[in-house]
Specification:
This protein is of the alpha+beta class. The chain contains 3 helices and 8 strands.
């Protein structure tokens, strides 16, 4: 019971801290469902196929507590991933707050509590230099089969299956403090 109570207090504190952070910024805090609908509308504009059909949508909250090993970073984030009905493309949006000097962001293949290899690169710091604060949309784009690397190279059905089975996590790496990952969230 003590552990559950600690978890609930931690989640409440994380929520309050996130709300305070966004209240101090000029970014608007969006509901994940609203944001997912926005992603789907954007996909409809850029796709030649009918995109008004039902999509599979994943969301996750990123924090240092989810890293392996966990860290005490104050950074937070959210990833929203929408898979097209024909499962040929994946659209993603990665939003961060209170994080600095982001070097990379990836999809990794591993279950909760385990570190795994990179299978999709979502963001690369173009200068490979410290970049200062990143508050707001860090990365947004589409993933096609040719963007998938590592043990799932080119395998879109394999990537989608791994997402459905909870085996993909989003990891944001910073330099120099958290090279292995500062915030993480399982899809």
């Amino acid at each position: 019971m003590k552990r559950k109570n600690y978890f609930m207090k931690s989640m409440a504190l994380l929520f309050v801290a996130s709300m305070a952070l966004f209240a101090c910024s000029n970014e608007t805090l969006l509901d994940p469902q609203t944001e997912a609908a926005s992603i789907l509308q954007e996909s409809a504009k850029t796709s030649s196929k009918k995109t008004s059909d039902t999509r599979l949508v994943f969301t996750t909250n990123l924090s240092g507590a989810n890293e392996v090993p966990a860290n005490d970073s104050k950074a937070t984030g959210q990833a929203i991933v929408a898979i097209s009905k024909d499962e040929s493309t994946i659209h993603y949006k990665l939003i961060t707050a209170n994080i600095e000097n982001v070097r990379f962001a990836h999809f990794h293949l591993a279950p909760v509590g385990v570190n795994g290899g990179v299978v999709v690169t979502l963001y690369v710091n173009p200068n490979e230099q410290p970049s200062g604060p990143a508050n707001g949309i860090l990365a947004e784009g589409h993933i096609a089969a040719e963007d998938i690397t590592g043990s799932l190279a080119g395998d879109m059905p394999g990537l989608i299956s791994a997402m459905r089975n909870g085996l993909i996590y989003v990891n944001v790496h910073t330099f120099p403090t958290f090279g292995g990952g500062e915030i993480r969230g399982q899809l």
